[in-house]
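Objective 1.3, modelling of assemblies. Example input:
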Amino acid sequence: MKSLQDSTVAIIGLGLMGGSLALALHAKNACRKILGITRNPHTRAQVLARGIVANASADLDLAAEADIIILATPTQTILKQIPQVGTVARAGAIIMDLGSTKREIICAMQALPAHLDPIGAHPMCGKETFGFDAADANLYHNAAFVLTPLERTSPTALALAQSVAIALGARPIILDAVRHDRIVAAISHLPFTLAAALMTTANEFACTDEMVYTLAASGFRDTTRLAASDTTMMLDILLTNRENVVSAIHACSRHLAEMAEMIDRRDASALRAWLERAAISRRQLF
Amino acid sequence: MKSLQDSTVAIIGLGLMGGSLALALHAKNACRKILGITRNPHTRAQVLARGIVANASADLDLAAEADIIILATPTQTILKQIPQVGTVARAGAIIMDLGSTKREIICAMQALPAHLDPIGAHPMCGKETFGFDAADANLYHNAAFVLTPLERTSPTALALAQSVAIALGARPIILDAVRHDRIVAAISHLPFTLAAALMTTANEFACTDEMVYTLAASGFRDTTRLAASDTTMMLDILLTNRENVVSAIHACSRHLAEMAEMIDRRDASALRAWLERAAISRRQLF
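Predicted structure (tokens):
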């Protein structure tokens, strides 16, 4: 069995996630060779010039010589690229992805040829900025790095995927894909939808009063931060985790309606108890 | 007319807002004398020992010698203290507050004796931490500092209130109280209710899956930050701005429902346009 140190790693997509991965693996000298696959000629020139990758191409064929192929494109692109990678990858290659939802991706991986060794992954980190220019070798530091093995995933693939996470300074966590998707709907996709809905509501207010954004302060800034996330990435996430996201939105909407109702009927003691529970749990968490 | 430099300023309430105000006025040597009024004996001892105030008391009577009295307590407390301050303050004294909602406060100020000179204020800054220990001389720096004069407010009171804002490094903005309350419902109170509802929803998920908070990352942290705000302060705010808050919650809930509906029917193009509008306006704003 090859160690990560002896492995050639092909990274498909060199945006925020893939770019940060390439920077971190390069900085730690964690693998034998990095290959970069991206359609962006400017990014290809940059990673080659900086010596981050041994080779770069717009073509998936470059991944043919890799021991580990990591898909770091938006979720719907990953779904399209999995069968393409299946025809390119050499026997025994580990096929991994960094997609933010896992159930549909695991399903697509299930259909890969038997000589390939797939495993799902989702590092719990990110920024509202995107593209290689936003990439950061420390992005993965201390992040939970979820691994969602398939039944067919070999112990070797699992061990190497864990080595990748550890090389990045992240904490590998093995989780079932269905369970992963339910959890991230609540703590990642729901916060995004709230940020986007808040921004949309404020825009509506700003249409009739030009002072609205003059008064916006740090609370508004932080609560809306995720609304600036890459639209393509978020669209793919929402559409590949539909049931969970819709049900999380409904759960949260019920709580909002409860709150509005308590405010409306001036029920100070019920509202105080409700707000205090939320405040205490937030203070315990961070 | 006295300048701020020649004025004695009494601050009622030395928590995050009043404490930061005292620290800033003291650091800039902006007024003749600061008097601190707080029920907290520990805070009184601290501000006296550090020479921030000339005198400190638990009793509003201390404000009798002040030229400017600034109420920096939670909104419902301000409403109770306004008539008490009315019996204590000397003729010509400027009565100002830092409450987060303005309509009910302006209404209470209207009933003050004619020899007093009231004006409402709301500095658009804060933190989710609270109490004098969280106070920070730079809290007001660059913040919008809303002033809501009454019809009876004298030009002197308005000028001195503007001097206070400028001394703190803030930007004074004159605004009608009704308009202020409508705006802050959208850009301040709504973000808080969303943060609290998100925290409540996540707690619900965490009840049935102990991995939920293991996967929570910076997006969840930032979007829930306001949920940790002081409950008494937020309760007062929500209850003194009921109609506006409830209507902002309803507007935002409608947008959430729209989003859930687009996700549910897989309407990628409508959803993309919707998310892109929110993303672009967020990126333009900060």
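Chain A is about 50% helix and 15% strand.
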